[in-house]
UniProtKB/TrEMBL annotation:
One GO MF term: FMN adenylyltransferase activity
Recorded metabolic or biological pathway in which this protein acts: Cofactor biosynthesis; FAD biosynthesis; FAD from FMN: step 1/1; Cofactor biosynthesis; FMN biosynthesis; FMN from riboflavin (ATP route): step 1/1
Listed PANTHER family: RIBOFLAVIN KINASE, RIBOFLAVIN KINASE/FMN ADENYLYLTRANSFERASE
Protein name: Riboflavin biosynthesis protein
Amino acid sequence: MEVHHLSYPHHLFENENEDAYSLAIGFFDGIHRGHQAVIQDALTVGKELQIKTAVMTFDPHPSLVLGKSKEQVFYITPMEQKIEVLKGLNVDTLFVVRFTSDFAKLTPVQFIDSFIKKANVKHVTAGFDFTFGAFGKGTMKEMEQLAGGEYTVSVVDKQMLTGDKISSTRIREELKTGNMEQVKELLGRPFMLSGVVIHGDKRGRTIDFPTANVQPMEGQFIPSTGVYAVKIQVQENWYEGVCNVGYKPTFNNPEDKKLSIEVHIIDFDQSIYGEEVIVHWYSRIRSEQKFNGIDALKEQIGKDKLVAVNYFQINE
């Protein structure tokens, strides 16, 4: 998959692209099943027209530029992950448009001229609620009206699961409660967190449950505190594990609010400091809790490990 970074007014298409595209357009945080329906429509049309399929997304999140969020935005799929997921969907080209204050001022007509027509887009697919141009005034109806015969348009209706719309907002709410089974249903795959194994306090080794202390990719959404059944990819191999997200209250001062993500990898005994790993989240086992001593903690971790092993035996 080719990846092109675009910005306005610089680094745009100087001349019309030689390649024609069927384009799926949206922010696509999570690339959940609703987003996949949009991308699949673009792929289908691309195949029918015998042209390439592209996805256009934006970076950073518009709320950061438009002043709607004063806090850091945490992504379900940071850009590196988004690229990997799109590769798996057989997309030919990804256009990453830099969302800036200048870009946000574009009228719908200017956006279409600069980012649709000059890109040699022959078909545009988006979700029913996609808007574009200054103040989000451009709708998909307007996208079609401004085509001038140069491209066609299709709009994908909202996708539903258990009576509610599949959305990035809904996924974030489920992540906040640790409902990883529901997150998996909404995404169409397990929630994924990428990071690097760093040195921790190494206390796990002293209680016979060594852990990999994972420092997550910056800007990545982290699920609710608790203990989870997970799988972790280390050097291209996948292992089952138990992950604790929290503040380690058994050992730490309650005022210490440094969050840690620690994975006990089952049947694994290697030094992996500095390794990039991927954690797939499957099921929340329990809440994080404070124990009265090391023995009680060890006993509970042993139980958590059995729960994780049984989970994967039943669900594999």
